[in-house]
Design goal:
The chain has 152 residues and is mostly helical. 79% of the residues lie in helices and 0% in strands. The protein contains seven helices and no strands. α2 packs across α4, α2 packs parallel to α5 and α6 packs antiparallel against α7. The longest helix has 26 residues.
Length: 152
């Protein structure tokens, strides 16, 4: 395709960037909702963790890589930062909800920290996957975090 043809269909560079952001955000939000909808009525947190750390090809590292690149760009773009933060918040809220469902007496600060830790480990393990097999260590780290909830 020639540059004029691409610009005719997609617009200028800013328009193409906005389309990319919209696609990535919508796809991640859709996947988060699909995961939430697919969770069974029992053992939800366990199933969620199994899904996140047992299927490295799904949702696919490419989407996570693009999200990471967009995150770096958001340092100088507050509108982008707000959009990406909302997507992360949706994912972290799902984790926190499932933590509270299984550990109803856990303090908010602990639930928030564990949900954030699981999310951070998830994104980190996806980003490291091309370099090494990080899934087992990531899963062990998540199990330690969840184990800390049993002690609360």
């Amino acid at each position: 395709m020639t540059r004029p043809l691409v610009r005719h269909h997609l617009g200028n560079k800013d328009d193409m960037f906005d389309l990319l952001v919209t696609h990535v955000v919508a796809e991640l939000e859709k996947q988060t909702q699909s995961i939430a909808d697919a969770l069974p009525s029992s053992r939800r947190l366990e199933v969620l963790i199994d899904y996140l750390f047992g299927q490295p090809e799904d949702p696919g590292p490419q989407l996570i890589f693009v999200f990471a690149d967009l995150t770096m760009k958001s340092v100088s773009n507050s509108v982008l930062a707000t959009r990406l933060a909302a997507t992360i918040t949706q994912f972290e809220t799902l984790l926190r909800k499932e933590i509270y469902a299984e550990f109803s007496n856990v303090p908010d600060v602990t639930a928030n920290a564990v949900a954030h830790g699981i999310m951070a480990i998830y994104f980190n393990s996806i980003s490291l996957e091309p370099l090494m097999q990080a899934t087992e260590n990531a899963r062990n780290a998540v199990n330690i975090l969840i184990g800390s909830l049993r002690k609360e």
